[in-house]
User: What shape does this take?
Amino acid sequence: MIIEHAFLVGFSKSFGLFYLVALSVAAVIYAMRPSNKKRFDEAAQSILRDEAGPWR
Amino acid sequence: MIAQLTLIERQRAILISAAVALLGFLMMLAGRDDPMGAHGALIFVASILMIFRIGGSYYAPPPSDDRLRHYYDDPSKVGIVISMMWVIVGLGVGDWVAWQLVNPDLTFGTGWSSFGRLRPVHTTSVIFGFGGNALIATSFYVLQRTSRARLPDQVSPWFVLFGYNLFCLLAVTGYMMGITQSKEYAEPEWYTDIWLVVVWVTYFILYLRTLARRKEPHIYVSNWYYMAFILVVAILHIVNNLAVPVSLGHAKSYSAFSGVQDAMTQWWYGHNAVAFFLTAGFLGMMYYFLPMRAGRPIYSYRMSIISFWGITFFYMWAGSHHLHYTALPQWVQTLGMTFSLMLLIPSWASAGNVLLTLNGAWDKVRDDATLRFMMVAGVFYGLATFEGSFMAIRSVNSLSHYTDWTVGHVHVGALGWVAMITFGSIYACVPWLWKRERMYSPKLVEAHFWLALAGTVIYIFAMWNSGIIQGLMWRTYNDSGTLAYSFVDTLVAMHPYYIARAVGGLLFLIGGCLGAYNIWKTIAVPGVTEEHASDLPQPALAGALNAAAE
Assistant: This one.
């Protein structure tokens, strides 16, 4: 199969653009959602909690 | 070390070593008329030594089940020690080649000691030897503690660690024998590459297996970065090294790509090696050791997530900025340039996170050189990523490309960011791992810090000056429209900066040696306090103790 240069350019400029924008929007929504705040605050604190060894 | 392994694990370890020995023997036979045969012998001898090492303790009493109540830290300890050995080799060879640029006669007159062969020995030793071992060692440490789960078995971590070091050894000895693919940061030939794939896939599976055992529902952000590092490096390594060997008995191979495709694949690899080897993994380190050492959580966990996805999305497309003004299509160059500029956002989010986490704890930064290593690393990370985005702009690149400015930029990242965060993390980690109250000598940590900082600043200022002068001389025309300066004129102009650079490198090397000595003494001198009750360090204590020891 030979992939033409023009096809690759077109693909990058259309699909490539939109899927990166969509991924970025999804990442920001995930990070900024108010309902995730508690989980993230806990995660940030969790490493400082001493739990004396592995649980398994 | 071996006594910690159960009988079945000792048997497995011997079996793996025997299989590798057999492979080495076959390589020795097949490559007897080629430098590859010497590598076969090296693999064979290394595996046989390993079998003897395990065999020597084979009949030691089996470990008690008590071991399962603690994290499995032996591979991390060994990894840190090996990492410090590599840094001395890597910085030493680096400074040697720096002096070769001052005085080209500083070789032994033999092929192996020429600049062209020693330079990749330097880059591989510091990036893969020092950085890679530190990443493997700290990733095991961080992974277990953030997941609150022990590594699932005791053989595969050793396979990853020793297998990886065999790769590094094959790489650097190969360069000195003249074995190279001539691809930057991907110099090792096909059989060494295949070996790294085996080791790396084992590493990835081990990471996933441990994560699957975790207690916390949320995976801590350090693990995201470490995982990105492992997964993406695997992808990059496999694709860029697709090649066909001349024969199974020859070291030489030919790339599956040719011409501009080869160049693009190489720099897609090369720039993502910077992104995922030299950035993502070390950010994983930073997001664990900085909060632990400062005794306070990361300033914004959300920002760490956004910068994680920013880095993974954007970096993938930035590689083509290495190929401005080449046969590469113009739009691909522009694409790389644009993504490089966008990269400033996630990069500065991370650098800002470092400084904002420390905001309110500056007294600790003042008193504790270990924390200061991490703080300065954050600053240099911000500086290096700003400079990188700037240099990716086509018109800036027309001045900076092929000059020492590039070399300076690489070392802002490598010395200022990567090495500083690694030394900081190692200084934090060593007392925790070996159950000591603090490092053997906080004064030596302090001395190391100032040597490292002075060395870095001297190095990068020398290269900025040298690079810009060089770039300007190359583009200066006289009245008749021809070049005003000959190549030799530029060399004469650069000479003083080369001396300064080599001196800066020497300071950095001396700092590294002090660090290795300090770590060695910390391990060798028995601890002053009782065993810590838990495996987890007491973060807030560390800085206070160092201050008290002053």
